[in-house]
Amino acid sequence: MEQNKGNAWALLPIAAFLVIYIGVSIIFKDFYLMSVVVAFLCAILVACLQNRALDFDKKLAVMAQGVADKNIVTMVLIFLCAGVFAGILGREGAQAVADLLLSFVPARFSVVVIFVVSCLVSTAMGTSCGTITVIAPIGAAVAASTGISPVLFVSSVVGGAMFGDNLSFISDTTIAATSTQGCNMRDKFRENFLIALPAALLTVVILIVIAFASGEVNAYTPGEINLWLLVPYILVLIGGIVGINVFLVLIGGIAVAAVVKLALGAGVSGVISAMGGGAAGMFEVIIVTVLVSMLSALMRAYGGFDALLYGIKRVFRGHVGGQLGIATLVSAMDIATANNTVAIVMAAPIAKNISEEYGITNTKTASLLDIFGSVVQGLIPYGAQLITATAMTGVGALEMMPYMFYQYLLGISAIVFMFIPSIKARHAKS
């Protein structure tokens, strides 16, 4: 298949964004100084100054097409629902869960439990951002009570959220990876699980070592726990486990949370105000999602993604090289789009071509697309996951980088498994 060489200069805007956003933070030693929204506006300005073959009106039309993507609309609605849910329960709900958690687990090991809970919730709900919205405030509340670093807590929540993002049967990334490669979802789950489990277990070990090595942890005696505040969280968790659509789960959670708060005397005006506050708290995440989709549409129209695909296919050769090429391909797409579902969909046709050329099973190809999309998505500071975590807790995205143990270990585990035949291939030989 002849691949269009594209235009490498079309990727300049994303490079400009990274230089501006990370550069300003490093120069001024303040990770909160530069707004990610302003940095993306600068990147879009760079993109608009490129390609004189298109006038500004046509560039606006291209950006509008990017925003109109179904995945973008879905993400925006999930963000709003998750924000309203968290807004109604507020800190009071998170504190109730934290109190219950610390009633059974020694405070020193609470980070381990938060990570495991995030893994379970994300696998059940099929959405990493929804998991972060629900669990991150709980982690921040536990951190405030115990004196353990909130950065470690929030980073562990993000890692656990990404665990389920590429394992859940109802995750959009899982559906995108399996459908584009034409493989069975159960086979892909087994392939992914063998890669993700070692990374998760090693993360637990690291967190336990940190727990033993940490200094004095504040003794914490939970106050009186209002069990009614736990009901919305439990219902959301059960709904995710059963496999109910994420929108129905969150809308049901909102309804139950509102009833609980009204029963506890919050008042109708108080509940309405809390809903608005929760939705408003997600506005920056939504704006970033829209800006990224606009920028991605321009870079795609200019030939930037074609150049990326062409370069990767020329560099990598052989069975393992083909897998590295697929991993690099989806990672680069995710850096450019900040949306792992979109990155998987865009990378899928070329990934399928590479897999056929180098003898890689469709199951392993789907697994690589999903895993490396999740690895990168959970690390980029302008991705929805880290921005959501920052919005919910105030912990800076760049501060989390040294503590993203699961993300790094997942990438290493996936590279190791490139040298091991896939489950499907082993069955074929036997």
Written account of the structure:
There is one protein chain. The chain is an all-alpha fold and 430 residues long. Helix content is 77%, strand content 0%. The chain has 21 helices and no strands. Helix 4 packs parallel to helix 6 (128-146), helix 14 (304-315) packs antiparallel against helix 15 (318-337) and helix 15 runs parallel beside helix 17 (362-377). The chain starts with 11 loop residues before the first helix and ends with a helix.
Mean pLDDT: 82
Which geometry do the CA atoms define? globular
Estimate what percentage of residues fall within beta strands: under 5%
The largest sheet, given as strand count, sense and whether it forms a barrel, is: none
Going by helix content, strand content and strand pairing, the class is mainly alpha
Straight-line N-to-C gap: 33 Å
Q: Indicate the percent of residues in helices.
A: over 70%
Low-confidence residue ranges: none
Helix segment tally: 21
Sketch the topology as an H/E string, one letter per element.
Answer: HHHHHHHHHHHHHHHHHHHHH
Number-wise, the strands total 0
Backbone CA Rg:
22 Å
Topology:
Elements: H1 12-28, H2 36-49, H3 56-67, H4 70-104, H5 110-125, H6 128-146, H7 150-165, H8 172-181, H9 185-213, H10 231-242, H11 246-263, H12 268-280, H13 283-301, H14 304-315, H15 318-337, H16 340-358, H17 362-377, H18 384-393, H19 397-400, H20 405-417, H21 423-429
Helix pairs in contact: 1-2, 2-13, 3-13, 4-6, 4-11, 4-12, 4-13, 5-6, 5-7, 5-9, 5-10, 6-7, 6-18, 8-16, 8-17, 9-17, 9-20, 10-11, 13-18, 14-15, 15-16, 15-17, 16-17, 17-20
